[in-house]
Amino acid sequence: MSDDDEAAPPVKKSRVFYGSLEEKERERLSLDIARNMAAGSDAVKAGIQAGNINISSGETMEMEERVSERQQEALAEFERRRRARQITVSTDDAEVKAGLRALGEPITLFGEGPADRRERLRSVLSVVGPDALKKSRKDEERAKRSQEECQQTWYHEGSPYLKEARLWLAKYSLPRAMKRLEAARAQKEVPEATRTIRQQELHKSLRNLNNFCSQIGDDRPISFCHFSPDSKMLATASWSGLCKLWSVPDCNLIRTLRGHNTNVGAVVFRPQAGVSLDQSDVSLASCAADGSVKLWNLESDEPVADIEGHSQRVSRVSWHPSGRFLGTTCYDYSWRLWDLEVQEEILHQEGHSKGVHDLTFHPDGSLVATGGLDAFGRVWDLRTGRCIVFLEGHLKEIYSLHFSPNGYHLATGSGDNTCKVWELRNRKCLYTIPAHQNLLSAVRFQPTDGHFLLTGAYDSTAKVWTHPGWMPLKTLAGHEGKVMGVDMSPDGKLIATSSYDRTFKLWLSE
Prior knowledge:
- By secondary structure, the protein is of the alpha+beta class.
- The chain has 7 helices and 28 strands.
- It has helices at about 20-50, 65-85, 95-100, 115-130, 130-150, 160-190, 190-205, and strands at about 210-215, 220-225, 235-240, 240-245, 255-260, 265-270, 285-290, 295, 305, 315-320, 325-330, 335-340, 345-350, 355-360, 365-370, 375-380, 385-390, 400-405, 410-415, 420-425, 430-435, 440-445, 450-455, 460-465, 470-475, 485-490, 495-500, 505-510.
- It has a 4-stranded antiparallel β-sheet. The chain has a 4-stranded antiparallel β-sheet with strand order 2-3-4-5, with no helix packed on it. It has a 4-stranded antiparallel β-sheet with strand order 6-7-8-9, with no helix packed on it.
- Helix 2 crosses helix 4.
- It is elongated and about 160 Å long.
- The relative contact order is 0.08.
């Protein structure tokens, strides 16, 4: 078979179209579009049924509004930047920080330098306005001015009796101060060896203190105890409203003073009571939680006079060393001084931000110290009316104060479980004694020489501390409840403690 006999490939005939292809293309494109739309609608329907596509009920958002909002924001930003460029900010970094603090902004951010801080202040001022810094500074100046006005000392006119009393107190206290200083000079002339021997003997006798007598004093807790000036009687106050007089040292009941209807806070003997005063003279004063203050003599079971004027609890009363004046502390943030000769209140002194709990008079009669629930103490000069020492250091309320016979040491007992001894000559805290494991209810210096300090606390103990040195000498343990009051007899031989366990105890050195 030859090559000529092989079949040749068929020739593809080309189609020839006459006219335009536009109509055919339109038909084809329309068919493709319809086919695609059908497929798309089927996919949308499937998405709706599957819950993947949510169709709103005709809510639309116009694109033009959206665009206009963006334009407004951009314009506002441009305007803010323009204002920021016009605001002048100090180059002093301290002033920049003060401005940020006044506007309530953090004064510095992490990694921020002075230039960045200035720009941040400028941007803040461009938002709040440059006048905001001036307003805040004006408010600060106004607040500072009002604070300074509050701290200013102000005076009001007192009664003629107050002026007479201040003159009388000055004439009374200055000779006593001279006698005290003469005694201190005489004591300084005693040889050091003799003083050391006396101190060692005193410490030895204090270490031998033991419970001499224990007596059930009432059906309710005994809140206070106080020796008479002749050391022959002990007065106790109870939460039952009764005050009782006991003979010392045999602890026999002499008299029950009935007059209070609620908790009695304190009962104190008047100086010279039972020594130079008559039995019919006013010899005791007591106070109670209802604001009542009553005066008693040694003949009657009923009060001889009532002192009215307190609207809240009176926690303590104290006699001036002269016996003419009586001081009372009240929970209305004030303390008062009463003149028994004119039978009037001559001084109503404020100064504490909370209730005043205790007060004590200086041995000379020139000063009075008050302690309050605001944790601060104040020493007032009765001759001028000024607060001369501000005792700041306790963390909780001050419940007791007592002057040392040396005239320049003051002890305070507080709810922070410490006793602080203050040096009045340089107006500083001399020593802080971590005295007890609970709040201190009472502090007392030795009444004769002040060579030791007695503290009572709610940890059911009383403790004796050396002065000076502030070393513990003896712990008087024996009460089953909180020790609420302590006292020392004026002759320095006996110590009395009263307690929440309804008993009082006498302690004597063997």
